[in-house]
Amino acid sequence: MPSTETSSDWKLSTSGTYWVYTRPLEKSDNDDRDYRLIKLANNDLEVLLVHDKDTDKSSAALDVHVGHLSDPVDLQGLAHFCEHLLFMGTEKYPKENDYNQYLSEHSGFSNAFTGVEDTNYYFEVGHEYLEGALDRFAQFFISPLFSDTCTERELKAVDSEHKKNRQQDSWRMFQLEKSLSNPDHPYCHFGTGNLETLSEQPKRLGKDIRDELLKFHDDYYSANIMKLCIFGRESLDTLTEWAVDKFNGVRNKNISPPSFEGHPLTEKELKKQIFIKPVKDVRSLEMTFPFPDQRPLYEVQPGRYISHLIGHEGKGSILSLLKKHRWANYLQVGTIHGGIGFEFLRISVDLTEEGLANYEKVVLVIFKYIDLLKNHGVRESTFREVQSLASLAFRFKEKYPPSQYTSRLAGLMQHGYPSEYILSGPSLIRDYDAKSIEENLKWLGPDNFRIMLASQTPPKDISFTKREKWYDTEYEVVDFNPSLIETLKNLEADPELQLPEANAFVPTNFETDKKDVKQPIKKPELIANDSRLRLWHKKDDTFWVPRANVWILFRSPLAYATPSNCVKTRLFTDILKDSLNEYAYDAEVAGLCYNIENQLEGMLLAIGGYNDKLAVLLEKVIRKMRDIEIDGERFKLLKDQLRRSYKNFSLEPPYQHALYYLSYFTQDKMWTTAEKLKELDAITAEDIQAFYPTILSHLHLEALVHGNVKKEQAQIMLKSVLDILNPKELLPSQLIGHRSLILPEGTKWVYQRQVEDPNNVNSGIEYLIQVGNVTQTSLRARLSLLAQIAQEPCFDQLRTKEQLGYLVFSGVRKQTGSMGMRFIIQSERDTVYLENRIEDFLEKLKALVEKMSTEEYKAQVQSLIFKKLEKDKNLGQEGGKYWAHIHSGYYEFDQVDKDVQELNKITKESLLEFMDKYINPSSPNIRKLSVHLQSQKVPPTSSYKVNIESLHTCLVAQGVTRLSIDDLRAAVERGDTGESSIQAILREMLIDETKAEESEIEALMAKLVTAMRMTPSATDRNGTGKENNTPDDTINGSFVTVDSKKTARRLSLMNGDSIDMDSSGQSTPIRDHSKLPDGNIVILDSVQFKTKMELSPAAVPLIDF
Ligand SMILES: [Zn+2]
C-alpha cells in the first residue's frame, strides 16, 4: 500500500497489479473528462489516466524527479545529455529513429526538457495509435540502448544547443545568477552542458561519458520517483491495463527524490550588486530574495498575494510611481521555484536611462511599498479577490492540447499535493491565513536580497572586470554600501503608494445559454458588410465558456505607405497602450486582455477574455484612440524603447535574420528595420499628434466577434466603434492587399550576408522552393503532403545523423500569393555547405518516396489528413483559425475540407511528378531562393584528417556499393571528435547497410581504418580537373573537398547498378560542398532584384459575400 495516504484511500485491484485511489479528484466544472489515479503494485509508479471520449489526439508524459541539480560536479550537463540520448533506440526497438518515425506516421510528435530538478518527456499521437506509441515510449524507461555512436553525435546536438543560447541575454543572466550563487550548492552548476563539460573534461579525467551516463540513469531513473500521465480516448480500464502492462517493467530502486542542503543564496551571496553587460541594448534591474518553498504552502500561496500587490500596475502601485518619475517602463514580479526546499522571489524592472542613473532610488520605492504591505497588514478583501479570480480561472479552464496537458500534469504530480488535488494543485487558493502571508513577507527584508543590474555601460565608478565561465558574460560584483541597508531600514512612507482599490473588472455574469448542438457550425457568419465595416460573427456552440475574442482590423493605406508612416503608426499604438496601462491592468488581472499593433494593412486590435465586461474595455480603448493627448515625456521614453528594439534586432539569432530577409525578398513591400530606424530620430510627439487623426479619418474596419456573444451584441459593439471614430470610407482600390514576388521559372537565387553580431558562432539559412499560389488546392495539397513526408527524415538526417545544428526545420512557407517548401537550419557550418546538404537531402527524399510501399505512403497521407481534421481544443484556437482566413483576404473557411478531398486523390506517382517538376533542384521549372547568414567566426576545424576517397574506394572494392562518397563524408563529419568516433559511426553504417555478421564487419573495418589514414596521392590531387582547387584535398575540420568527377566515374563504372546513379541511370555529379550548387545566381543588389521580379495577384475572396 502506498505509504503517504490512509489505507481507506487506496484499494488494491482484484488482479493485485495496481492500487487505485478511491476518492474523487477535484476538477474544473468545465472538465468533462474522466480520471483515475493508480499506483503499480510492483514498482510504485504513480500513473494518472485521463479518458477523453472526443479527443482525436492521445498523449503520454513521464516526469522523472531528477534534473541538472543532480549532475556530478565534473560532468555538468549530464542530466540534459541523458534526456537527449534516452530516445535513441531501445532493446525492443533498436532503430534510433523508430519512435519518431512511428509518431510522424501517425500525426504525432515528441519532445522533452530538463529542468533543475525534473526531466519531462512527452509525445502526442493520433488517438488510434496510442498503444503502439506507449509501447515504444515505455521502453525508454526500461531498456534504453545509449548506443555509442549516438552518444558521440548527440554530444554535438547538446553543444549546438548551448551555442544557440550563448548570445541570448536571458540565458546569460540565468547562468550568471547561478554561477554567483553558493558554491556548495549545486544550483551554481551549468545545466545545459557542452563539449567541454561532457567530452573534453571527462576525457582528461579518464572518464567514459557513456559509462557515466549509464550510471546516472541507473542511479536516478527509478519508478518510484517517476510520474506518468496517459491521455486517450480508450476507457479508463483499457488505459489502466496498458499502463500496467507496459510500465511494470520499469525498475524501482526505492530512492528518494534528490534534495539539497542549504540555499543557493546565503549570507555570502546576499547584499551584493551584480553589474552585467548584456548583449542587447537593454536596461534592467532585478532584485532577488531567497523565499520559502511555496509548494507546501499551496493552500494559502502567500507568494501569490504578495506578487499580486508588488506587481500591480494600477493607481498607487510601484510601477505607477516609477513611471511618474520616468524611471521605468515595466515591472514584473513572481516566485521562482528552485528545487525541493528553496525558492526565490524576483522583482524585475525595465529601466529608462534616467531610471538606470537612479537605480538605487528605484530600490527605495520598492522597499517603501514593501513597508506599506508590512505596516498595513494583510488585507483580506484583496486576498479574497485574488482567490476568487483564481477559482474563476479554474472553473472555466479551457482545454490544452493533449501533450501540453499530460506534460504539465506529470510535472504537477511531483509537487507533493494530496492526491485529491492532483488536477487542481496550485490553481486554487484554498485558505486565508494572514499569519502565513506575514511570515513570508518578512523574507523581503533589506538585508535579504541582491541586485542584478544589466546595462551596456556600467554606472560610473564601476567597470566590468570579470567574465562568466560558460557564457563569457562580462560582469562585476560589488558589496552593498552599508548606508543603503540603513536607509532601507528607515524609510519614510510615500503617500503616492497605496494599496489598489477593488477591481471593477471582476466578471459576474457567466451565462452561456448552453444547449445541445449536434453539428457545430464551421465558419463565422457575415453580419454586416458596407463601405466602412465588414463584420463576422459566430456565437460559440462548442466550448460553452463565458469568454469571447474580438479582432478588429483598421485598414488604412497610410499606415504602411512610407517607412516614416510605419514608424509613426507603431509609436501611436505604443503610446496608446502605455497611456491605458493603469486602467487596463485591472481588466488583465481579471482575465480580459487587449493588444493593438501596427500592421501592413493598418492597425489590429484584439481583445479576449471573459465576455461580461469586454464591451466596456473595448469602448475605453476606442475612445482613447480618438482622444489621446501625447505626453512629450512619455513619448521620449517610448521612442527610446523603440530605437533600442530596432537596434537589438541585429542581435537576433542568425536563422531569424534568414527568415526576415527571405520575407523581404518575396514580399512586394517591406520596410527594413534599418530603414525604419533612419526615420525614427526625426519624429516628434507633435508629429504623432498630427498624424494619427489623418489615419483615423478614413478607415475600413474588418472584424470578427467569436465566443459567448450574441449577434445583436456584436453589432452594437461595432456600431459603437464606428460612432466613436466616425471615419470616412476608403475607395475599393485603396483596399487592394499586398503581393508576393514570384521567382522566374528555372532560376535559383542566393542572397548572402554576414551575421551582424561578431560574437555569434552560428550561421543560418532559409532555403525556399516556390511552388505556386496558396489558392491552388492541388499544388497546396501536394506540397503539404511532401512536407509531411519530409519532416521526420529531414530531422533524422540533418540533425540526428549529420548534427548540422540544434535548429533544423522543414515545412511549408505560405504568404499572400505564394507558397513553397522551406528548410531552416542554424549551424556552425558554412552556409554554402548547408545549402549543399539541403539539396543532397532533397535527392534522398526523392529516393525515399520512390521506395515507399503503398502502405507506407497511405499511412503518410492518413497522418496528414488526420492532422488537418484535428479538432480545435479551445475557443481561442477556433477563433484564431477563422481570423487567419479573414485576415489573409482569401476567406477560405473550407480550406481543410478541400485539402482533404484533394489528398485522398493524390497517388504516389503524381506526388513524384510534382517533386520532379517543382522540387527537384535541377528541374527546369525550379524557383529557388535561399538566404545565407554567415557567421563572422571561422567554422571550427579539427586536426584529424581522413581520406574519404580511399575509404570509398576500399568500401567499393569490398563490395559495399550502397554508400556514396557523400554518405561517407557526412558520416565522417559527425565523428569529428576523433578517429574512434569515426570508426564507431562507420561500423554502425556498415551494420545498417550490409546486415553482415559481426566478424565480417570487423574484418572490413580493419581494412577501412588503413584506407582512411592514407594520404591522397599526388595524381589525385592534381589531376582531377576540379574548378576550385583547394590547397588540401583531405578533410580539414573533418571536411573533404576532393570528390573528383574522375573518381566518381571510375566508381560508377565499377558498380554499374547503384553508386551515385539516379533512377534514370544517369550518373549524378558528385557534390562539391565548398561551392554553391550549379546555376545559382547571387543577389548583389536587392532593389534591382525586386524590381525584376513578377508580382503575384493580391488576395481575392474565394467565397461570395
Ligand atoms: Zn536539449
What does this structure look like?
The protein is 41% helix and 18% strand. It is an alpha+beta fold and 1105 residues long. The longest helix has 27 residues, at 563-589. It is globular and about 90 Å long. Residues 1015-1067 have low confidence and may be disordered. Bound molecules: zinc ion (ZN). Zinc ion binds at residues 80, 84, 161.
In short:
The protein has 1105 residues and is an alpha+beta fold. 41% of the residues lie in helices and 18% in strands.
Question: What are the key terms here?
Answer:
binds zinc ion, eight-stranded mixed sheet, 29 strands, 1105 residues, globular, seven-stranded mixed sheet, alpha+beta
Enumerate the spans where pLDDT stays under 50 for 5 or more consecutive residues. Answer: 1015-1067
**Major sheet: size, sense and barrel closure?**
8 strands, mixed
Distance between the first and last residues' Cα: 66 Å
Give the helix/strand class: alpha+beta
